[in-house]
């Protein structure tokens, strides 16, 4: 397994991550597993690159003010402590189970993104959304983000877009900033547990970080409804293919 293979893999994941605000670690885990990393390492190795990639991808959204800072604060209030709990349990759950959970979550969330909703694809989240609801959602996402060693973007975007009624672009930008904050505690937990292949992580970051910035700029040219359908379809197709590989 050569390290150069991780650079183009990072570029592909980074483009999707910057464009949709989600799927960085979620897509990276199956990709790294297919490149030969063992289960737990494949789950956690993308983490060191997620903070700079999230910030790079978010720069375009920040300039266009497609961010909801209230939602970021409320989500992190629940997500950060829950992330630490989930991260400490990852080794006990086991690599193969974590890979299966990643695939199943991707498929389920993809279907939910494709499902028709009565809410309009609006702008900011409903300012009347109860703070406890946003924080509780953040805690649930944070726990799974820590357990599955990712920034939570593939959970945050559906939560923001479907649950809080944001436009797809605003959900993506808000997700990137939130995921950047979650990446730090998640990375620390898994680093102390020895779950990260640092050489592979560095090679992956070389492709991931600049590609995330490009993806963030490209997203401004795509209609929100189209982006939502494309993202959902991509999640479902990739998840089903990965689950066949893992269980076959």
Q: What is the total number of structural domains?
A: 1
Q: Rg from C-alpha positions?
A: 16 Å
Extended strand count: 0
Structural class: mainly alpha
* Overall mean pLDDT: 81
Can you tell me the residue ranges where pLDDT is under 50 for at least 5 consecutive residues? Answer: none
List its traits.
0% strand; mainly alpha; 248 residues
Structure description:
- The protein is an all-alpha fold and 248 residues long.
- It has one domain.
- Helix content is 77%, strand content 0%.
- The protein is globular.
Outline of the structure:
This protein is mainly α and about 250 residues long. Helix content is about 75%, strand content about 0%. It has one domain.
Task: Describe the SSE topology.
Layout (H helix, E strand, L loop, with lengths): L5 H15 L3 H11 L4 H6 L2 H17 L5 H25 L1 H20 L16 H17 L5 H11 L4 H25 L5 H21 L5 H24 L1
